[in-house]
């Protein structure tokens, strides 16, 4: 094993004019008429493991779970189109076509809602290099020799108090983690992954970019990410979930950047759902494409506009813990988080070094609709990883912060199998260093997974007779702080708070979209008694407040 200190530089030619096996088109259907499936027999399209996960968390099967109509797919195939994959949740098919003529006329078919070119047959690579390693000053005292079981990973795991879970025997055993990424080069040959393969915990692979290819012969970024969770070479490099099982899904094409990759991502989430994955890590994000006409705007990063973000939220609602990188744009013109880090009900990760200092490249929040983003932070600056061909090295990127958290979330999932994803995420957030004073740089801060486990062990009541919210200060003057006391995340879009004056007049009405909410600019209100009514999941509670 060669140990080196280096920056990982990923080479991509600036201009690529390559012929692919055809352009990619997204064909959306109007309905699912003619499908041979129905929601009364979900075992025909979801695995038993996926069904057990739904049952455990009381998640119903609905029409979105149904596969697309086989009749419609047959029509596309007869027309000469190659169907690559489909989306159950958004009812579309991604097809390849040799020429635009291959799709001519089908928009007139009664069951076709829309057709969109998502990647041309001949591509021109833009100047933006997604895979360049972000610049950052070298962390001091990084060269200490590995001295314990974790090896070079010691500081990046102990910073999160991840060893507290491992020492109690929770290393991810029995938990399935799906990884969406750009390729997993030589992961099946590297010694840090020996136990993963010898113990048959590599449960499968899928390549949505090059279906006939081998994910182990593609790009290395996914392998780097995998090493932060699955590496198990004591004394050299150990990951955050070394006993978990893994399913590797390639959704990203490292040679270009077109919207088809967001559709690949959606398909990857649906695959993770259908096989019964518990945790998903996706160290990928989108905002700029090779064709500027496809570029996203910050205003679209509101959690409800982009389908990739809606898919991430939906995946969380299906019972999976979704972990994503916030993006590496903090010191660039864009600065903001990237999609789907704006999704609700997930964890998006900022980057710090092992001393807790924020990396300047780490993308900043909030989401376009004002929610705290990113949620938490982990080591993504001078992070020790496995790289190709066989080197342990440090590199930078929120791509590496996300799997550190995802692996430890899997360990919590092992320890608390009956806690829902929203409960586990809420505990992670509550354990974090900036929980009482979140910001747009590190969100709620650096999690303490030992503390998160303690929070999950506490008895928490959600009975309506007891208040779910605490409101402070009381009396108040200028501002109010609202904190959700339930163990689950506050993700009901209908949750609101209403400030009512002594005459019954509604003075302020706001949607509540986070565990901690602030109501500001109340200083002009006259002194006296007020009622703050909070409506959560259809039930209301009233708080009597005094304004000084």
Provide structural commentary.
Strand 8 and strand 9 form a beta hairpin. This protein is 20% helix and 22% strand. The strands form six sheets. It has a seven-stranded parallel β-sheet with strand order 7-10-6-11-12-13-14, sandwiched between helices. A four-stranded antiparallel β-sheet has the order 3-4-2-5, sandwiched between helices. The protein is of the alpha/beta class. The longest helix is centred in the C-terminal third of the chain and has 18 residues, at 398-415. The radius of gyration is 24 Å and the shape is globular.
Keywords for this structure?
single chain; 548 residues; alpha/beta; 7-stranded parallel beta sheet; 4-stranded antiparallel beta sheet; 11 helices; disordered N terminus
In short:
Helices cover 20% and strands 22% of the residues. The chain contains 11 helices and 23 strands. Mean pLDDT is 88; it is low at 1-20 and 459-465.
Outline the fold blueprint:
Layout lengths: L1 E2 L19 E7 L18 H9 L13 H9 L3 E6 L4 E6 L14 E8 L34 H5 L4 H5 L8 E6 L12 H5 L3 E6 L13 H10 L1 E2 L3 E2 L6 E6 L9 H16 L3 E4 L24 H11 L3 E5 L21 E6 L23 E4 L3 E5 L3 E5 L2 H18 L5 H10 L18 H9 L11 E4 L7 E5 L11 E5 L5 E6 L4 E4 L8 E9 L2 E9 L1
Parallel strand pairs: 1-16, 6-10, 6-11, 7-10, 11-12, 12-13, 13-14
Antiparallel strand pairs: 2-4, 2-5, 3-4, 8-9, 15-16, 17-18, 18-21, 19-20, 19-22, 22-23
Helix pairs in contact: 6-9, 7-8, 10-11
